[in-house]
Amino acid sequence: MSIPSFGVGTFRLTGRTAVDSVRNALAVGYRAVDTAQIYGNEADVGRAIAESGVPRSELFLTTKIWTDHYARAKLVPSLRESLDKLRTDHVDLTLIHWPAPGNGEALAEAKALGLTRSIGVSNFNIALTRQAVAAVGPGEIATNQIELSPYLQGRALTAFLREQGIAVTSYMTLAYGKVLKDPVLARIADKHRATVAQVALAWALQLGHAVIPSSTKRENLASNLLARDLALDADDMALIATLDRNGREVDPPGLAPAWD
Q1: Catalytic residue list contains 70
Q2: How many CA atoms lie within 13 A of 249 on its CB side?
Q3: Tens of pLDDT along 189-199?
């Protein structure tokens, strides 16, 4: 199953804010929604989908298993709880949220049971991705969801993932909004009569990455979606390549691996 190139993220959104964000995203045309157990909003996402009226068959739902549930005895039961909250009998993609040893078999079991159509990882470096492939078999890891932005381009890891046939999903593509103030991106945006957010998202899309930006504002959700129609030229891409500065925003101690 291919990973949709454009979805809506829900990190840091809970309650009515999460419901409204997802409902608005679905209303303006999104059909992929990304959540996680640790976000505490799976029930909100489920409610938003139910209220939206969009058929489940049209949606691609992703959730991520939290570290407390990695053990074989816990992963499948925790995923069943997630499905109850999401009001569905399966998700389209389940990810291991942060690296931990010995979780591959339980994830494969969840797929075998039909609870998830595909499986993958998040925040895995090259060495850990190799281990994951060895654990579940080649062709089974659908994506590695990693932090990427114009300030953190991850060329070694993304090249490795492409070689392995593993899709790259970029989160934090706008670097907590920091890239929105970048003068280079602003010039490119002016050139194309686009927004800086659209430029950053189009950059990721043109590299072949999937993106999952979030917003609480309907107009921004709709605007971000227009990045799919923005074609950056070779000069634009070369300029953005110069912005890489290892600008990592997410690096939790005790969870993060040794980044490539």
Answers
A1: no
A2: 18
A3: 999 999 999 99
